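Why does residue order matter? Because the sequence determines the fold. Keep that principle in mind as you read this record.
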Amino acid sequence: EVQLVESGGGLVQPGGSLRLSCAASGFPFSISYMTWVRMAPGKGPEWVSTISSRGRTTSYVDSVKGRFTISRDNAKNTLYLQMNSLKPEDTAVYYCAKGSKDVTMTSREYWGQGTQVTVSS
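Structure:
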């Protein structure tokens, strides 16, 4: 059974930083693309970032480029999202998802339970 457990969310002031983690189990993490998706209040899901299986290729939505960094530790079966220079518009529930951008935005079958990120003064 695929399990994805996010952590690291919270309340942060504009300009602050947070590091999200996602502990994965139940599937071969080291050969899987992984993605972060977010859902802001009253809005649909928004793709944030994807990383290839070995971490050599990453991609980001334009609004977070230069501020967010996706990474992974295949020895620990863990995915990360380092978020810097946070803005109020980054407020959302952040989900870790197994698969590429296309796969994860088509089905929520392999999403975690999410972690809330709130950026506010």
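The radius of gyration is 13 Å.
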